[in-house]
Amino acid sequence: MSEPVLLMRDIVKAYDLGKQKVQVLNEISLKINKGEFVAVLGPSGSGKSTLMNIIGCIDTANSGEYILGGEPIKEKTENELAHIRNKEIGFIFQKFNLLPKYTAQHNVALPLLLRGVERNVAFEKAEDLLVQVGLGDRIDHKPIELSGGQQQRVSIARALIGDPKILLADEPTGNLDSKSGEDIINMFLDLNKKGNTIILITHDLHVAQQAKRIINVRDGKVHEG
Fold it and tell me: I need a surface site. Which of 60, 75, 104, 204 has the fewest CB within 10 A?
């Protein structure tokens, strides 16, 4: 049996909006095993973005237990959470979040450079990954010189460079045409076959159906299937 890479028990998240308290997540329990490809599906306002932020250690729960890679998250300091975001989770965003002044290679190398890895080592690994995602002839191109699909491939290479426990993709096809979106989903399927654990956040049922398992988020609760 696969080991859980992510375990949540009774996660609650609420926000204070002036005199009003809005509960966004209501006692969510969730287990994702190593090597799974899971889609988190829900409409705007369902709580899926808040759940994603907690999974990604961008935000923290008010109560409940979150264990990532066997480590409880609750007592982590902000510096420790930043380390987890850099090392344990590979983020892939809808808007790519590439730095415009840097080449594709430099963008991909950044997570390793932030860890203090030597520049030549980081750049060599970045080049290898860009070759793997089909951009070996674009390593010196800046984001403005790349199509949306190519920029998302750079984003995926950047997410992979630190060998994270989880790839966390937020609406990764949302800014792409249908052909580029299909290419990106196929890349996720290939990465999953190689053993990568992938959590894909989406509002699109067709995209979600490409994953091996679907978790629906509705009114701050999760429902399988």
Answer: 75
Residue 78 Cα distances to 8, 75, 83, angstroms: 20, 10, 9
Alpha-carbon dihedral of residues 161, 171, 94, 193, nearest 10 degrees?
20
In this structure, which topology does domain 1-88+164-225 adopt according to CATH?
A: Rossmann fold (3.40.50)
Within a 10 A sphere around the Cβ of 113, how many other Cβ atoms? 16
DSSP state of 73: -
Which residues have C-beta within 8 Å of that of residue 197, sequence separation ≥ 6? 5, 32, 33, 34, 35, 36, 37, 165, 166, 167
Q: Which pairing describes strands 4-17 and 63-68: parallel, antiparallel, or unpaired?
A: antiparallel
CA–CA distance from 153 to each of 141, 174, 204 (Å)? 13, 14, 20
The CB density around residue 148, as the number of other CB atoms within 10 Å, is: 17
| All structural domains of the chain with their residue ranges | 1-88+164-225, 98-163
Kindly list the distances between the CA atom of residue 83 and the CA atoms of 111, 122, 140, 164, 170, in Å, as whole numbers in the listed order.
Answer: 10, 17, 28, 11, 20
Give dist(CA 214, CA 51) in Å, integer: 14
Q: How confident is the model at residue 139 (pLDDT cuts 50, 70, 90)?
A: very high
How far from the centroid of its chain's Cα atoms is residue 160's Cα? 10
What are the tokens at 142?
Answer: 């800046």
Give me the numbers of helices (H) and strands (E) for the chain, helices first please: 7, 10
20-48: per-residue pLDDT in tens? 888 899 999 999 999 999 999 988 888 88
